[in-house]
């Protein structure tokens, strides 16, 4: 029971006691630093609570079989993802050493993404979900093909399909909401009221602190009167960001930060490699062709140049964060257009000329969205600047939708940003 929850003895003891004594509260809050095993524990909690036997990882009961592949109908997962690089990392492990262990590592990584697109969560938003339908269907077919090739031990075709699955997964990443939309919370509440297929439903809300006020209020409503056969697991790396009323209705399970030695041992056990990374996040990011840190720096360079140009021509645009971004690029004299062209060149035209950068566009868009949100929320930002940021953000969302739905090229990507800049630009990529 909870064999894959490593170096969290206190949390492990609390969970095992809770389950063996059948004293499970309606809602749990798994709180602790990034990479401390909260989401792993949440998934294991769902499996163990559904198990028809003793909760061992290799249990062959029908409930555990479906939970291990993250395909159980009584499981619902949503919330911002913490480690989107996990799919690419586990694909390398699986392709280089096909085994039952590496197979499950990869399949579960993909399903952690796919579960965000359960139709249950998108009721009323079918038009948005339809944009992802083709990729979802293709991924499901690929997982079936991977299972068949694994059984037949056809390693070379297996590598090709696995790599293609990684690329398709990248196209879905940008569609996972950065926050927790209120429509998903309401749809979750409606689903929770229905009877489970087996003994119990489990709802995992990852990074629950990302919920806005409307979503928090909707979440609180169902936590106040939870259905009898439903258990909620909220995870958070920022416990202080959760409102007191949600905290008071959730049993806290604390997760400690893992030491560097513990992190290296986990990496060794999970991926069968020796690595000097000090945390799982560092391990994932080092293996990403376009790390989040690089995307954030690129976003700051591009939007710093954009803001510098805009603020120089309009004194009404003001704000501390925006001005700091503009100052950073002032000495380099790089234009926004040149910055964006450089990023495209470094990422192989956002993956179209180099498959290892397949997710770079989406990583860049997410980093840009976070940066623009910080500028818009800055209390020192003027009304004119907030309106300007809203216009750019709208263009950015439109760009992402066009790229996903219409398969636009990087050349059209640059032209779309050129429209934001208000200049004529012909791509030379």
Helix-strand blueprint:
Blueprint: H1 9-20, E1 27-31, H2 38-50, H3 62-68, E2 75-78, H4 86-96, H5 100-114, H6 126-152, H7 155-173, H8 182-192, E3 201-205, H9 213-224, E4 230-236, H10 244-248, E5 251-254, H11 260-271, H12 280-286, H13 292-313, H14 320-330, H15 336-346, H16 360-377, H17 383-406, H18 410-421
Parallel strand pairs: 1-4, 1-5, 2-3, 3-4
Helix pairs in contact: 2-3, 4-5, 4-7, 5-6, 6-7, 8-9, 13-14, 13-15, 13-16, 15-18, 16-17, 17-18
What does this molecule look like?
By secondary structure, the protein is mainly alpha-helical. The chain folds into 2 domains: 9-286, 3-Layer(aba) Sandwich (Rossmann fold); 292-421, no CATH class. 58% of the residues lie in helices and 6% in strands. The protein has a 5-stranded parallel beta sheet with strand order 2-3-4-1-5, with helices on both faces. Strand 3 (201-205), helix 9 (213-224) and strand 4 form a beta-alpha-beta unit.
Name the quaternary structure. Answer: single chain
Named CATH architecture of the largest domain: 3-Layer(aba) Sandwich
Largest sheet: 5 strands, parallel
**N-end to C-end Cα span:** 54 Å
CATH-assigned fold name of the largest domain: Rossmann fold
Query: H/E order of the elements?
Result: HEHHEHHHHHEHEHEHHHHHHHH
What is the typical, i.e. mean, pLDDT? 88
CATH class group of the largest domain: Alpha Beta
**How many beta-strand segments?**
5
Strand order in space, largest sheet: 2-3-4-1-5
Name the structural class: mainly alpha
Q: Please tally the helical runs, counting DSSP H or I stretches of 4 or more residues.
A: 18
Number of domains: 2
Beta-strand percentage? 5-15%
Helix content: 55-70%
CATH superfamily of the largest domain: P-loop containing nucleotide triphosphate hydrolases
């Amino acid at each position: 029971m909870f064999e894959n929850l490593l170096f969290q003895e206190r949390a492990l003891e609390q969970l095992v006691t809770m389950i063996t004594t059948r004293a499970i509260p309606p809602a749990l809050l798994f709180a602790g630093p990034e990479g401390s095993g909260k989401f792993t524990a949440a998934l294991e909690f769902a499996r163990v609570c559904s198990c028809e036997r003793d909760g061992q990882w290799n249990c062959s009961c029908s409930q555990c079989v479906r939970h291990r592949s993250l395909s159980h109908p009584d499981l619902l997962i949503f919330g911002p993802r913490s480690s989107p690089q996990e799919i690419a990392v586990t694909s390398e492990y699986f392709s280089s050493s096909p085994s039952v262990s590496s197979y499950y590592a990869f399949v579960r990584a993909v399903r952690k993404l796919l579960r965000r697109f359960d139709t249950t969560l998108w009721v009323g938003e079918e038009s948005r979900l339809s944009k992802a339908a083709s990729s979802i269907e293709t991924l499901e077919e690929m997982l079936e093909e991977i299972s068949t090739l694994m059984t037949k031990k056809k390693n070379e075709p297996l590598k090709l399909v696995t790599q293609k699955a990684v690329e398709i997964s990248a196209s879905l990443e940008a569609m996972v909401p950065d926050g927790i939309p209120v429509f998903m919370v309401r749809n979750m509440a409606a689903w929770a009221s229905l009877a489970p297929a087996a003994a119990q439903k489990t709802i995992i809300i990852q990074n629950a602190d990302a919920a806005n006020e409307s979503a928090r209020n909707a979440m609180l409503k169902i936590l106040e009167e939870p259905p009898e056969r439903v258990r909620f697991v909220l995870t958070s790396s920022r416990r202080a960001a959760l409102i007191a009323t949600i905290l008071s209705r959730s049993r806290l399970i604390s997760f400690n930060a893992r030491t560097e030695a513990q992190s290296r041992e986990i990496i060794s056990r999970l991926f069968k490699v020796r690595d000097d990374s000090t945390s799982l996040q560092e391990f994932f990011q080092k293996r990403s062709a376009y790390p989040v840190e690089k995307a954030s720096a690129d976003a700051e360079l591009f939007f710093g140049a954009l803001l510098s140009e805009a603020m120089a021509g309009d004194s009404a645009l003001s704000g501390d964060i925006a001005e700091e971004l503009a100052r950073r690029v002032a000495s380099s004299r790089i234009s926004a257009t040149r910055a964006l062209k450089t990023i495209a060149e470094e990422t192989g035209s956002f993956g179209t000329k180099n498959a290892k950068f397949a997710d770079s566009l989406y990583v860049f868009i997410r980093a840009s969205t976070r940066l623009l949100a910080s500028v818009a929320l800055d209390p020192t930002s003027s009304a004119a600047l907030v309106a300007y940021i809203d216009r750019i953000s709208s263009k950015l969302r439109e760009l992402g939708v066009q790229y996903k739905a219409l398969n636009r090229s990087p050349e059209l990507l640059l032209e779309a940003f050129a429209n934001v800049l208000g200049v004529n630009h012909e791509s030379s990529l």
